[in-house]
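Now for a concrete sample entry.
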Amino acid sequence: MSNPSILCDFLTRSYDIGGVISVMALSGLFILMTQHGLEYRKFYEKLYALLTHVVFMAKHRSIFLQDKQLKSHPPKNVESEILCEHIKKEREAATAGKRPYYLKKSELRERKLMNKYNELKLAIQKEGS
C-alpha cells in the first residue's frame, strides 16, 4: 500500500465502535501499528474489552479465526517433513532407474501453502458440521 495512513481513521473509528466490527478492524489496525508505526494508545485496553462471549459467537468469527490461522507461521518442522517426503519419493524413483529431481525453493513454498490450504479447508469443514 502506497499510503497506509488513509486507512488509519477508518480502522480506528471501526475499532472504537465495539463488538464484531471492532474484531473485523483489529487485523488491519494491528498491521498499521506494527509495520507502519501507527500509535494507538488504547489498543490493548480495547482489545481485552473485546474478549466477550458475543464476539466468539458472532457470524464472522470464522473469518476472523481463518485470518489469524493464515497469518500464523507454520511449525518449523513442516519444511523438513516436506523435504523428507520428497527425498523418499525420489529415492524410490532412483532405485527404479529414473533420474532424481531436486526440489526448488519455490516448489517447497508452494507445497507449504498447499498444506496450509488443506488444513484450513479441513478446519472449515469441521466447523460447518
Notes: The mean pLDDT is 77. The two ends are 38 Å apart (CA to CA).
